[in-house]
Amino acid sequence: xxxxxxxxxxxxxxxxxxxxxxxxxxxxxxxxxxxxxxxxxxxxxxxxxxxxxxxxxxxxxxxxxxxxxxxxxxxxxxxxxxxxxxxxxxxxxxxxxxxxxxxxxxxxxxxxxxxxxxxxxxxxxxxxxxxxxxxxx
Amino acid sequence: xxxxxxxxxxxxxxxxxxxxxxxxxxxxxxxxxxxxxxxxxxxxxxxxxxxxxxxxxxxxxxxxxxxxxxxxxxxxxxxxxxxxxxxxxxxxxxxxxxxxxxxxxxxxxxxxxxxxxxxxxxxxxxxxxxxxxxxxxxxxxxxxxxxxxxxxxxxxxxxxxxxxxxxxxxxxxxxxxxxxxxxxxxxxxxxxxxxxxxxxxxxxxxxxxxxxxxxxxxxxxxxxxxxxxxxxxxxxxxxxxxxxxxxxxxxxxxx
Lengths: 137, 255
Description:
By secondary structure, chain A is mainly β. Helices cover 5% and strands 43% of the residues of chain A.
């Protein structure tokens, strides 16, 4: 499974009113061609049939943030929100329906005590993988 | 200010390539303190001032190690069934793990030890399997060393996490903010490689070291708790109506 792991400086995002420079995105597909790890331009290498798990964790453990929505053209992937069983920790999950060359997607984040929403438009993307995934067990 | 420093590791890539380089990333919440473009792998620290203008120690750095594909750290390692939100949890609320017999073997000092880790479930038929794999295990930070420690700029130690339900340990350090400058330090972490031993899968820790820096600056943090005033120690009491300038009081009376 592909993991896209987002880390957010919640206080920075609330102070500046933007996710830019405050959101750090990583995945476990660099060896398959992913680029720009740690940035909002993360390009994740995918193949048709790959399953993707998006999670978001605040850098400051006392603060709140979660992904509120992910917008990808539905013919490519239709992510849906879920919760780890027995918890209130959410994730987003989707399956790649067909191979892509490069396609951007948008991320909406809910954060802070008032659940303010901030949107990252056209930042991260999905790109065609150069190699299949490996599994170290 | 608390600096939250996360070492994120693509565990499977590290195990495949035998190195952290290009497979580990350091992020924190201090980039806004940098004067100019932040340097990579650098945590920025501002000080607090004593009343005489000298720097006072008021900064704390926290380190956490995470696997990029590991379950979120705010989940319990042994996820309890029907647990209330962690903020509401009480010891009496804890249920037994759904699979108490599910134990993961680790090789420690040549001996096998079992740890009751249950892989958190995504539910809704989305799990690949329920067996713990290398990618599910976050790196464990085991030491902080280097010039920043040797020169007594930071004083690191390992602590237990405050949320008992999460069951994690983390490293933290106070900072001597009088020692301005940029200092190197090293994060030592164990990454767990699966192997076969005694007919079962056993995880053995491999030590990797990540080089980072701390930049102690002479500036003083502006503290929201003191009504946006600089962090001068001892903290001055906030202005009250009685202590406002005379001109302001006169204006109020005129209104």
